[in-house]
Amino acid sequence: MAMTPKIEDFPETLLPEPVRPESWECCGSECGDACIQNLYYAEKAKYDAQQVRLREFLLSGSLKEPMDSITL
Fold first, then answer.
1. Helices in the chain by DSSP H: which ranges?
2. Three-state SS for 13?
3. SS3 call for 67
């Protein structure tokens, strides 16, 4: 009988969900990559991708991509 995978068995450290910055937190100086909004969107994309991998892991019991090929 196959064991149901658990979150504790997931081979990655779970990322915390990023908190969206308030509009007043942006200085409006077009900081580029250092902009708090850009940092949030980059962190959110990594978080969302990991949540998809976690969901797949919990449903199937394995990851579709080897961990070496995943860029965080």
1. 36-60
2. coil
3. helix
What is the pTM assigned to this prediction? 0.75
d(CA 5, CA 26): 41
Which among 63, 60, 69 is positioned nearest to 3, based on CA atoms?
60
Task: Find tokens 């915390």 and name the residue.
Answer: 16
Whole-angstrom Cα distance, residue 10 to residue 61? 9
Which of left, alpha, beta for 37 (phi over 0: left; psi -120 to 50: alpha)? Answer: alpha
- Distance between CA atoms of residues 23 and 25, nearest Å: 5
pLDDT in tens, 20-47: 999 899 888 988 889 999 999 999 999 9
